[in-house]
Design a protein that fits this description.
Rossmann fold, alpha+beta, 6 helices, 2 domains, Elongation Factor Tu (Ef-tu), domain 3, elongated
C-alpha cells in the first residue's frame, strides 16, 4: 500500500508529521512518499501543476494525498476519487484539474461519512479527514464506504497557448525551486516547427531547442523541453525567474527559429 503526500505545509511545523502519524495509526504497513511540501502557500494552481508532473510515475492503486487548501473549514467539499489507475484524496478546489484533463474519472465521493474521520477541527482537515481517508483506501476500504457518490468535481481554467501561423503565445504556469520557468507549451505543440526562438519582455530573444542546461555558458539563458514535457526557460547555474523577470501569468512568445543541430 503506497501513499504519496503533496502539500503547501512546509517542513518547519508538525503538520506533515502529524498526518503521517494518523495514516500509520490506521494503516501501519503503508509506505509513504513525500512528493513535496513546498507548494507556494495557498497556490492551488501550482499544486495542480506539481501533481501533474508526478502522479503517473507511481504504480496503479497508489493513493495520492493532496492538500493545498485555502478554503479549509469553508464551503469546499472534501473528496476522494478513482481517476485513471490511481486514487486521489483532498479538497475539491481544482487541485485535480490537470489529472482530470488527462485521465478518466471512474468514481468519486464526498468524504461525509464521519465514521472515517477524526474529531474534525476547523483548520486541519489534512489530519482529521484527508489522512484517515487516504489510509483507509490504502488499507482496502472501498471508496464508496467513505462518503456520498458525486459525479462533479471542480476544475480550474487551465492555461493554453495561443497558436498562430508564425508565433505561439504562451504563458508562464510554474516556477521551480531553481528559478526555472515553465510555460504551457508542450513538446508535441512545438515539434512541428522544427526550431523555435523565445521572445520575452523587452524584445530579448533566446534560442530554443537546447538539448541540456549545459548547452550555454554559465549565467546565460536557454530554452529547452525538460522532464515535464513543457518548454522551460532557464539560466545555466542561475535563476531565470529572477534574472529575466518572469513570473507565473506572464506572456512568452515563441517564433520560428533554426532547427536544432543533429
Amino acid at each position: 500500500m503506497l501513499i504519496t503526500l503533496l502539500t503547501d505545509f512546509g517542513t518547519r511545523d508538525t503538520f506533515v508529521g502529524v498526518m503521517k502519524g494518523v495514516i500509520l495509526s490506521i494503516a501501519p504497513d503503508a509506505r509513504l512518499v513525500d512528493l513535496t511540501h513546498h507548494v507556494p502557500p495557498q497556490d492551488v494552481h501550482a499544486g495542480a501543476f506539481a501533481l501533474k508532473t508526478a502522479y503517473r510515475y507511481f504504480p496503479p492503486g497508489t493513493v495520492h494525498l493532496v492538500v493545498v487548501d485555502p478554503g479549509v473549514g469553508g464551503a469546499r467539499r472534501p473528496i476522494a476519487a478513482h481517476i485513471g489507475e490511481w486514487f486521489f484524496v483532498g479538497p475539491d478546489n481544482g487541485l485535480l484539474s490537470h489529472v482530470l484533463a488527462r485521465e478518466t474519472l471512474h468514481r468519486a465521493v464526498t468524504l461525509d461519512n464521519a465514521r472515517y474521520h477524526l474529531p474534525v477541527s476547523r483548520t486541519f482537515h489534512g489530519r482529521d479527514i484527508f489522512a484517515p481517508a487516504a489510509a483507509c483506501l490504502a488499507a482496502g476500504t472501498a471508496l464508496e464506504s467513505l462518503g456520498t457518490p458525486t459525479e462533479r468535481l471542480l476544475t480550474l481554467p487551465l492555461s493554453h497557448p495561443v497558436l498562430r501561423s508564425e508565433q505561439i503565445i504562451s504563458h508562464v504556469v510554474y516556477v521551480d525551486v531553481f528559478g526555472n520557468v515553465f510555460t504551457d507549451v508542450t513538446e508535441d505543440i512545438a515539434e512541428t516547427w522544427g526550431g523555435i526562438e523565445v521572445e520575452i519582455g523587452g524584445g530579448r530573444h533566446i534560442p530554443g531547442n537546447a538539448a541540456s542546461y549545459s548547452d550555454v555558458p554559465e549565467g546565460q539563458p536557454l530554452a529547452l523541453f525538460g522532464s515535464s514535457g513543457h518548454l522551460e526557460i532557464a539560466v545555466r547555474n542561475g535563476n531565470a525567474s529572477r534574472q529575466l523577470g518572469l513570473h507565473v501569468g506572464d506572456t512568452v512568445r515563441l517564433r520560428r527559429g533554426n532547427p536544432p543541430a543533429k
